[in-house]
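Ticket #4471: structure export looks truncated?
Reporter: QA, pipeline team
Priority: medium

Steps to reproduce: submit the single chain below to the structure queue and open the exported record.
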Amino acid sequence: MILAIETSCDETSVAVLDGRRILSNVLYSQIKHHRQYGGVVPELASRLHAEKIDQILVRAMEEAEVGFSDLTHIAVTIGPGLEGALLVGMTAANMLSKALNIPLVPVNHLHGHIYAAESEFDLRFPSLICLASGGHTMIIRMKENLQFEVVANTMDDACGECFDKVARMLNLGYPGGPKIEALAKEGQINIDFPHPIKKKANAFSFSGLKTAVLTKVNDSQPEEFPNIAASIQHRIATVLSHKIRLASETCDVAQLVLCGGVFANQYIRSHILSEVPIEDVVIPSPKLCTDNAAMIGLVARHYIDQGLVVDEVKACFPQMGLAFSGK
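Actual output as written to the record:
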């Protein structure tokens, strides 16, 4: 019975899991507080986590209908993420662990995104994973549980960050992904934005794509913005599907896993399903694609199986990538 805590960015989330069964997954989003600044303000995020963590914890326990004495482990995100935000969750986890005298499971946030799919599907190996979010765009090969090999990574920006910046160019507000998806439904895919480093199988690039959109926005009238939104959404979808196809040609693939906040976008999900020649494709439900504590609890089970538990979390690693949090 795992209590999981996620505070890596602008969502305060606590979940309770009985094995892989999610008993509760409570989330407080800070979006309304950061919207006026056009993005996440780290100091504000940390303060809001500190203000909300106690009541989110209580709600998660109440919704799960379990007592603290039923818990066997406390799982907590230790990175990548905002250091101050991570520290709030880690402090809460340390206090609970000491009070309940149960072990801690320090979890890599990226591993959580990957294993979010286990809420509904069994993972099969070797699997190919496309992780796309506001901070990361990667293709990963997973040979066995928690055995990762990075096949492709971004050279500059993540595609989720590209969505946010384009939304700002179009005066849509924050967060950009849902705003772009909504506006794109009103437009047509009639702008041929560039496809960056198309022939390079081991890398993504989105910086030049943002520049191309900015040039088009400066030359366009507001009534053309829906077409820009539809076209940039389509280009990001084609970039992801193209890199997945290239990666699938170089290694055996039993299953494709699509994870991270970008895959909450229904158009991108549908496009990749129609374009990628892999039969077994699994995608977490949209609510589990974005940051949440349930995904941290789901991967924590595998950490526990491999003995990756500690008595106290002493450090966070915001740039840890796919490295093991327990080593």
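Status: closed, not a bug. The export was complete when the record was re-opened. Leaving a note from the reviewer for reference: The radius of gyration is 20 Å.
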